[in-house]
Amino acid sequence: MFKESNSLNNDVEKESKTERNIEEMEQELVDLCARYDNPIAFYRHGSKVPEGIPPLRNFAGETGDEKYKELLSTLEESFIEYLHSPIFTDSFHQDHASRRRWQDQSGGGSVKEMLESDLYEYYKSNCLNANYWLLVSVLQQFYKDPDFQYPKELIDGLDRVFAESVQDIPKTEDYNQFTDEEKIACIPKIESVMKKILAEITIESKN
């Protein structure tokens, strides 16, 4: 598949470590993927994540040593990043095996080795990547786990979110068989669930 055996790092002039403009990164990603036989097309461009995220809410009955707070912090950061991430399709569509082979190809190193670190992270941030929004399903499965001692106020709020939105969260095995168009149609629903969860766990969203 790859006609060149050298790394992409040999093809691309090293840039400074300063943060690159999103538009420039997207164009570079388009050019590099096309060069290596996997053209991509952006359906939605990414946007800059605002500095400073809303603090987590304090729930009644907290003692200051809650294990679930670490999970909520991770969820908040991940959801906010997702809401600002790009949506793009590639040439493999539903052929996940070929995509993995392309990502792991040995002719010029893996995709991770070939792309500079910030560009690789941007490549992974595609909203169509199911791994990127699975935290919604993780929370849905474990927010009542007694080991984490979630406060009743939080459980009640998440109960409402998932009762209203359970049909909007596709099962991974189903999602992986969707066409690109079907996956793209899921994104607004997934993002809506994320926004509802953020409204339950952060102070700013509740004011």
List keywords for this structure.
single chain, two-stranded antiparallel ribbon, disordered N terminus
What does the model show?
- The protein has one domain (19-206).
- Helices cover 50% and strands 3% of the residues.
- It is built from ten helices and two strands; from the N terminus they run αβαβαααααααα.
- The protein has helices spanning 22-35, 68-83, 96-104, 111-114, 117-124, 134-142, 152-165, 172-175, 180-201, 203-206, and strands spanning 41-44, 87-89.
- The protein is elongated, with a radius of gyration of 20 Å.
- The termini are far apart.
Average pLDDT confidence is 81
Shape: elongated
Number of strands: 2
| Secondary structure: helix percent | 40-55%
Secondary structural class = mainly alpha
What topology emerges from the helices and strands here?
Layout lengths: L21 H14 L5 E4 L23 H16 L3 E3 L6 H9 L6 H4 L2 H8 L9 H9 L9 H14 L6 H4 L4 H22 L1 H4 L1
Antiparallel strand pairs: 1-2
Helix pairs in contact: 2-9, 7-9
Task: Summarize this structure briefly.
The protein has helices spanning about 20-35, 70-85, 95-105, 110-115, 115-125, 135-140, 150-165, 170-175, 180-200, 205; strands spanning about 40-45, 85-90.
